[in-house]
Amino acid sequence: MKKQLHLACVVCGVLGFASAACANELTDKEKAEGWVSLFDGKTLEGWRNYKGEGVREGWQVVDGTMQHTKKGGDLITNKKYQDFELKLEWKISERGNSGIFLSVIEEPAKIYFSGIEMQILDDESHPDGKFVKHRSGGCYGLYQPPAGAVAAVGSWNKVRVLKQGDHYQFFLNGVKTADFKTESEAFKTLVKKSKFKKWPEFASSLKGHIGLQDHGDVVNFRNLKIREIKK
C-alpha cells in the first residue's frame, strides 16, 4: 500500500497537480530543503482562532482540505514566523471572499488591523472585483495584481509568498502579483492614503502569525507548507 501511495504521489508530481492521495504531503526534496507542513490533511493541529485557544466549528477538515463554511472566525498559526517561504493552494466559492494574512500580531481587536493580506476573491462575481486593488493575488487595498493570474472560480490556485525582512513578494499560479517593502517610503505613502492609516499596528511587525480569513464564505485550503529562512 505504501509503495502504491508513493507511486501515486510521484505521478502527481510529474503531472504538476495534487490529488487527494498525495495532497498535504512533503516530498523528499521539500524535506531536504527544510519545508514543514502546516496542515496534515486530517486535523487542524497547529492552528487556532485569532485571540482564541481552539478552532470554531466553522472550520473543518473536508476531503483532505481545510474548509471554512460560516462563522468560523479568522485562523492563525500557533507559531510566529519572521523570514520564510510559504506555499499553499486555495479554492474559493462563487462570489466568495477570503484572504491570507501575514505578520499578524494579536494586540489589536481585529486580525486585519495588523496583518498584511494577500487577497482571495471570486474576481468575476464578487462586488469587490471591480476594485483593482481588491482582486485575487494582490496586497489587499494597496497593490493591484496583474490581470489573468487567478484561475476560474471553483479551481485550485497556487500561492507562494517570499518574505525576508520587510520585503514581501506574492506569487499566484506562478505570476508575481506583488513586490514591496513595508519600511519603504513608497509603502508608507500608500498606507497613509488607505483605510489602514487608522490602525498604527498595521504592518508594524516583521515577525508574526500567518492567518486565514473568515469573510463569511466557503473557502478551501490544502498543501500549506512553510520553509523558514535562516540568516
From TrEMBL:
Annotated signal peptide: 1-23
Keywords from the named record: Signal
Keyword Magnesium belongs to the record: no
A single MF term (Gene Ontology): hydrolase activity
Domain of life: Bacteria
Occurrences of domain 3-keto-alpha-glucoside-1,2-lyase/3-keto-2-hydroxy-glucal hydratase (ranges): 34-227
Transferase keyword on record: no
Descriptive protein name: DUF1080 domain-containing protein
Native organism: Oceaniferula marina
